Amino acid sequence: MHKKQIVVIVIVVTIMGFLFFMPVKGLIKSKEAQGHTNTTAAKSRPVTTVDVAIVSAAAKVLIGPSLSAQINDTEGQLKIATADADKLNLQKKLAKLWDDVNQPAPAAFYYQAIAQKENKFDEWQNAGTRFNDAYKTSQDTASQPSFVINGIASFKNAVKLKPADLDAKTGLGVAYVNQTSSGITDPDGGSPMQGIMLLLDVVKQDPKNRNANLSLGLFAMKSGQYAKAVQRFKTIIAQKAEVEPYFYLAESYKQLGQKKEAIDAYQKCKEMMPDPAFNQRIDEYIKELKN
């Protein structure tokens, strides 16, 4: 499997997870909530221990033996390395190798290990971002709580080092909301309200912030505030046309009953994502809207 194919798969998995969560039949019109925080917490569940070995094994199955070869070789070097400097360099190499094949879960653990040694903002930020990405793209619900907890811890350390950094605040806000969605009870972790307030503070300072607007748009959708979600996604698309915000824009229009706008947005998704399985599902949505 080639790296470009991996990129397509990651994007498709991210969107398809949401795509299959939403029903094809019917235009559901939820009563608009009062705020972004109108969400229901999932039932609390224990957090399964997940480590780099577990997520690396799963990621290698996805990328195939060819792309795994250099990673396997570097892992072997790390196992026999004795000097701290050598271990650190190999961990940095592995973090980049996993980034190159768009596998955020193993990359996250390596960035975390690096940050624990160097305590630098960029490394904590990298770790937190990859943990959030791993949560978003993972289909393994047993692993997701671990990604959330590690993401929160990483972003907290990043914010300590740079309290005013908007990307770190955005990442922490997203992780806080994901925490409740995962059914994690953590009195030291934060709350959906705290997460949303962080995100709203980011867009107050930077109205065009891509990540904060995307997250607020998604959380607005989950709480039935589709009109608010539309504005968030349009803000992103006005800066750069991307398949992910276009898809969520289409879903929001659909839920609002704005069929023409939804179909137009779905068509944009097809133009930007030439994946047969994805396009087949989009065609089903368009067909339903036209009937």
Describe this structure in words.
It is a single chain. The protein is mainly α and 291 residues long. It is built from 13 helices and no strands. It is globular, with a radius of gyration of 20 Å.
Features:
single chain, 291 residues, mainly alpha, 73% helix, disordered N terminus
Q: Tell me how many strands there are.
A: 0
Q: Overall 3D geometry?
A: globular
**pLDDT < 50 stretches:** 3-10, 19-35, 37-43
* Residue share in helix: over 70%
Structural class label: mainly alpha
Instruction: Report the total helices.
Output: 13
* Mean pLDDT, all residues: 85
**Gyration radius from CA atoms, angstroms:** 20 Å
**Largest sheet entry:** none
Structure summary:
73% of the residues lie in helices and 0% in strands.
